[in-house]
Amino acid sequence: MLGIVVNLKSIRKYQLKEKLHYPACTGLFTRKREEACQLSAYMEDEEDCPVLVPITDFAHADEPDRKIPVTIITGYLGAGKTTLLNYILTEQHNKRIAVIINEFGEGSAVEKSLAISQAGELYEEWLELRNGCLCCSVKDNGLKAIENLMQKKGKFDYILLETTGLADPGAVASMFWVDAELGSDIYLDGIVSVVDAKYALKHLQEEKPESLINEAARQVALADVLIINKTDLVAEEELDAVRSTVSSINGLVKILETQRARVNLMDILDLHAFDSLSGKGFQDKLVASAVHPHLDKSIVTVTFEVLGSITEENLNLFVQNLLWEKNVINRIGHPIEVIRLKGLVSIKDKPQQVILQGVHELYDLEETQMTWQDNGDRINRLVFIGRHLDKETLKQLFVSAQNA
Ligand SMILES: Nc1nc2c(ncn2[C@@H]2O[C@H](COP(=O)(O)OP(=O)(O)OP(=O)(O)O)[C@@H](O)[C@H]2O)c(=O)[nH]1
Ligand SMILES: [Zn+2]
């Protein structure tokens, strides 16, 4: 039987032993209290540990293919996000795509334009949003908007969500990721970031006060696909510089170069960037990405490989120290900040290879279809995107967790 086992050592830590819609998975982990509270609505008794919850109430639990992908479109102000969405909406394709555009303005009420394209036909509706904490407004109303939309218009094949130019896509992404766990009809497919070829370097190199992460760099760090738009405005050398800066931040990202955001839809949709379906391609990407780490405050990608296996418990502790406790210090005394985490790991006594995914403060372990060879070496490959990353410290920490 499918169910969630909740291990409440404290309110902020729990485990989902099996995903509601993905039986072949070992867990989704978060420490966010609000998210824990949402989950507790599905629990019978918060005090008891563990608790097994049947999911017979979820309408489509046995029809995983009914779930609708959500792609988050992010990018700095003026990069071309709306141009991209307009292009997608007017392009001929046989998907029913719902687009939600957040254009947060000044004032007490913010309106959200919402357009649905079906075979080139455009409908438009306005949803009123309450103005509050930006992050919460985006999260809560974004989800509510989608639910309303699905009720009114029936099912879509795909949802695209444009976040505001200054939003942290990690916060939005983790909301959708958690929501999928709760039996929602939608799931997070991937994050697409748009950068302006002419201003990308300026935005990415902008100095922020020490404690703040450059938002443009964070958007690149979180991207599964990165669109370098407005290539008509720059010379080849400038484009090269943008390309190499972007790859030094995010060694896993797939780069597309466009004018007027004309992309091949196949390149940005159905990425399955947050589940195990892309397991094989992901492994190749991990091997390919090798970026020189530096300890300064710029965002970089760090990868390492360690032979052997690790117990699930020790792997949890390793990840939780990084994402939740944030108590891992690099060699020059700065706490390591992980924005995005991916890995293919070998869990002790598990025949399947397991994908580790982390974004914001949320992470997930999911078994893939691939099994370890009986006579081959088991290996853990990890990729971290973030700030103050120190490959040696991270690798040492993993090895000690293995041997603990
Ligand atoms: N030269 C040039 N201009 C472009 C290109 N793509 C978009 N633009 C223009 O850039 C401006 C900003 O584009 P938008 O699509 O509104 O950008 P956005 O990211 O949605 O902007 P915000 O919502 O304000 O953050 C518009 O005037 C577009 O017409 C391109 O490839 N080349
Ligand atoms: Zn826009």
Care to describe what's here?
It catalyses: GTP + H2O = GDP + phosphate + H(+). This is COBW domain containing 1, gene 2 isoform X1. Keywords: Chaperone, GTP-binding, Hydrolase, Nucleotide-binding, Zinc. Belongs to the SIMIBI class G3E GTPase family. ZNG1 subfamily. It comes from Xenopus tropicalis (Western clawed frog). With 404 residues, the chain is of the alpha/beta class. The protein has two domains: 188 residues, Rossmann fold; 116 residues, Hypothetical Protein Yjia, Chain: A,domain 2. Helices cover 30% and strands 28% of the residues. It is built from eleven helices and 17 strands. An eight-stranded mixed sheet has the order 8-7-6-9-5-10-11-12, sandwiched between helices. A hairpin with a 7-residue loop joins strand 6 and strand 7. Helix 3 packs across helix 4 and helix 10 packs antiparallel against helix 11. The protein starts with a strand and ends with a helix. The N terminus is likely disordered. Bound molecules: guanosine-5'-triphosphate and zinc ion (ZN). Zinc ion binds next to helix 2.
Work out the count of structural domains.
2
The secondary-structure class comes to: alpha/beta
- From the alpha carbons, calculate the radius of gyration and give it in angstroms: 21 Å
* The named CATH superfamily of the largest domain: P-loop containing nucleotide triphosphate hydrolases
Number of strands: 17
Total helices: the number is 11
Output mean pLDDT.
72
Fraction in helix: 25-40%
CATH architecture tag of the largest domain = 3-Layer(aba) Sandwich
Distance between the termini: 33 Å
β-sheet strand percentage = 25-35%
CATH class descriptor of the largest domain: Alpha Beta
The coarse overall form would be: globular
Distinct small-molecule ligands in the complex: guanosine-5'-triphosphate, zinc ion
Order of helices and strands: EEEHEEHEEEHEHEHHEHEHHEHEEEEH
Strand order of the largest sheet: 8-7-6-9-5-10-11-12
Largest sheet: 8 strands, mixed
CATH topology of the largest domain: Rossmann fold
- Stretches where pLDDT is under 50 for at least 5 consecutive residues are 1-27, 32-64, 103-140
GO molecular function, one term: GTPase activity
Domain CobW C-terminal: 299-402
Keywords: Chaperone, GTP-binding, Hydrolase, Nucleotide-binding, Zinc
Family: Belongs to the SIMIBI class G3E GTPase family. ZNG1 subfamily.
